[in-house]
Task: inverse folding
């Protein structure tokens, strides 16, 4: 598999734009896949620089209903009029973040796009194609990230703390190897991996995504928690590439524990698995 990072909080050079968001292009022997589209149309500009034609993408997966992952959806639909777009059925609910002012800021997706004919709504488990599937509905065994504490959702007229029922994870199985893509891991990276193991009876070979160990709204994870996560990840024997909401400082601490078993993805990064 070939993975190109179209959008991330940082970039490998000034040639690539960056923003608080995530967008990954994943190429398999059968599919051209887009996972998230960042906060704007920036992913389109970086895609051109990385030799990716968005019009050729076969399908798009939106990991959850926050605009730093789905804010570029309108731009994507303007460039690709055939690809199916997979979102959880609760992704278009209203989602908010409590900022330092104490006021909630709407951080959800553009509801005007909900009726688009390309959109397909998923539920707790969804098969896209042979060896390409989604799962969600995780029952946490471990505490969820502290950085979720200022995130809210409105469902059926009720505003509550966001339990992230709308978050889904992509699994790609090819050539005897398995890639798990987590988006933001609001449910907790350990919980997600435990659920994957319950479904497959083993751990994935590669894991890509943010681990939500830091937040613009505060609630960063403490060192002991990061150390515990790092030791757990080492025990899975998987190779990790993290980014976005993990945070640079948390990544450095994970790196000190995990060494070559973890790397960082910035806009412009290209990796092969």
Result:
């Amino acid at each position: 598999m070939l993975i190109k990072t179209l959008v991330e909080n940082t970039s490998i050079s000034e040639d690539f734009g960056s923003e608080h968001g995530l967008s990954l292009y994943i190429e398999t022997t059968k599919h051209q896949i887009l996972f998230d589209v960042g906060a704007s149309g920036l992913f389109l500009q970086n895609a051109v620089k990385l030799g990716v034609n968005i019009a050729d993408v076969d399908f798009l997966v939106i990991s959850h209903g926050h605009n730093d992952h789905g804010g570029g959806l309108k731009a994507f639909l303007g460039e690709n009029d055939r690809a199916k777009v997979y979102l959880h059925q609760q992704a278009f609910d209203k989602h908010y973040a409590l900022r330092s002012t104490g006021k909630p800021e709407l951080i959800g997706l553009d509801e005007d796009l909900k009726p688009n004919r390309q959109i397909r709504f998923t539920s707790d488990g969804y098969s896209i194609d042979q060896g390409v599937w989604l799962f969600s509905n995780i029952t946490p065994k471990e505490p969820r990230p502290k950085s979720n504490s200022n995130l809210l959702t409105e469902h059926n007229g009720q505003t509550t703390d966001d339990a992230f029922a709308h978050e889904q994870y992509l699994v790609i199985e090819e050539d005897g190897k398995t890639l798990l893509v987590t988006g933001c891991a609001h449910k907790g990276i350990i919980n997600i991996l435990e659920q994957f193991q319950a479904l497959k009876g083993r751990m994935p070979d590669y894991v890509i995504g943010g681990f939500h160990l830091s937040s613009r709204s505060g609630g960063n994870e403490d060192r002991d928690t990061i150390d515990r996560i790092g030791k757990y990840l080492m025990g899975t024997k998987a190779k990790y590439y993290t980014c976005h909401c993990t945070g640079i400082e948390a990544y450095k601490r994970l790196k000190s524990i995990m060494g070559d078993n973890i790397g960082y993805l910035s806009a412009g990064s290209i990796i092969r698995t």
Notes: The chain has a mean pLDDT of 95.
